[in-house]
Design brief:
Length: about 220
């Protein structure tokens, strides 16, 4: 939980230090007492997933703002509420993003939290099995054209993952791998890049019946 801290008048030009660290403000604040807390529904989300930021403060009137700093971006206001005593925001970070909450009461000193980092996974579909073609296919989001994807395999749920092959996506960010007619589990893995965390996708079980691979 991130704490709201009171910023003394005249010290509003503040700088956020390391992600998740304490507030470092210019000047000499009169106090920095804890004033409630802010909750994030997750520290890591998948691309397209909603992140909820909620909290309470001792302020009954005024405005509360949510600020964000996307990967390689600048701080900016992304949402606001007029009920600071109890607030909730829903956002969808497109990639690694830092957030903080700032409460501006009708009277008195503003309050704000330290920056909170949110990591983002790419979205990988579950590999689809195509028995006649003896292939599996999958898709990576957002756009991942002509990029490398590592396909891993294992023969049982408790077995270690091993590299099956490294494939390249097409212009639709889709990959294809020809597989042997053999009972096996497969998943796709993409490396961390451009503000996205290393991602391992959902697992597909290839089942063999009467000499044919089926889902």
């Amino acid at each position: 939980m991130n704490k709201l801290v009171r910023i003394a008048a005249g010290t509003l030009t503040a700088t956020v230090v390391a992600a998740g660290g304490a507030l470092a403000a210019t000047g000499s604040p009169a106090s920095a007492a804890d004033s409630g807390g802010v909750r994030y529904s997750a520290n890591t989300v998948t691309y397209g997933q909603t992140l909820k930021v909620s909290g309470t403060s001792p302020v009954s009137s005024g405005k509360v703002y949510l600020y964000a700093k996307p990967y390689h971006g600048s701080w900016g206001k992304v949402a606001s509420k007029t009920t600071p005593a109890s607030f909730a925001f829903s956002v969808k970070p497109a990639k690694y993003t830092q957030y903080y909450v700032r409460v501006v009461p009708t009277s008195g000193d503003p309050l704000r939290t330290s920056a909170h980092p949110i990591s983002v996974h790419r979205k990988l579909t579950r590999p689809a099995v195509h028995p006649k073609a003896k292939t599996i296919t999958g898709k990576v989001s957002p756009a991942y054209k002509k990029r490398l994807v590592t396909i891993q395999k294992r023969s049982c749920t408790n077995c270690a993952w091993k590299k099956a092959k490294v494939v390249r996506t097409n212009k639709w960010s889709t990959w294809t791998l020809r597989i042997p007619v053999k009972r096996m589990q497969y998943r796709a893995v993409v490396a961390a890049s451009n503000g996205f965390k290393k991602t391992g996708g959902p697992v597909t079980q290839v089942v063999v019946r009467y000499g044919r691979a089926v889902r």
